Amino acid sequence: MNIPNDPMILLSFINTQLRDFYDSLDAFCEAADADADIIKEKLSSVDYEYDPIQNQFV
Questions:
Q1: Is residue 2 part of a domain?
Q2: What sign for the dihedral angle of Cα 34, 38, 57, 2?
């Protein structure tokens, strides 16, 4: 799976994936062979953090 590098595009992409297909960030990362820490770091750079209760970056 091709994951966007731009943080704002990544935000939209990840939240859509989480909303539509995955019940957690870990489930998404496992399916996409992605690193959750890298995703969290990129989105943290634009002031978004993962909320596991909402299952989205807020």
A1: no
A2: negative
State the residue range of the domain holding 42.
Answer: 7-57
- Residue 1 in any domain: the answer is no
Question: Would residue 42 count as lying in a domain?
Answer: yes
Residue pointed to by tokens 């634009």: 46
d(CA 12, CA 36): 16
pLDDT in tens, 24-33: 999 999 999 9
**Residue 15 half-sphere exposure toward CB, CA atoms < 13 A:** 15
Domains contained in the chain, number: 1
